[in-house]
Predict the structure.
Amino acid sequence: MASRRTQDTNVCGVTAAISVIDGKWKTWLLWLLESGPRRPGELRRELPGISEKVLSQALREMVEDGLVHREAHDILPPKTVYSLTDSGRELSGLLGPLSDWGHRRLDRLAEARTAS
C-alpha cells in the first residue's frame, strides 16, 4: 500500500516522502536503526507498545520502500537483522531538521498555553 503511493508520479514530493514514513512507528524505527543494525526483538523492546504484527508490517513496508535492508541468516534459531539502506540514512538525516521544527512548535504551543 505505501509503495503504491510512492510510485505515483502525479503527487508532490512532500506527499511522496511522507507516504513512506506515515504511521506511528516508522520514524521511531528510522531513528533506532540510525545507530546500527537491530534484530526484531531488540526493536520491540525499544518500542514499548508496538505489537509484533505492527512491527513486522512496518518493517516489511520499509523494506519495500527501499529504506530498510532485511538480512535473514540461515542458522538455527533463525536470525534476522534490519539495517538502514543508503536511502533510509538519507531520509533519516533529512528528518532531523523537521524534528527540530516540531520541537520548536511544541515549545511555542506550551508557551502560549502558559501565557493564557
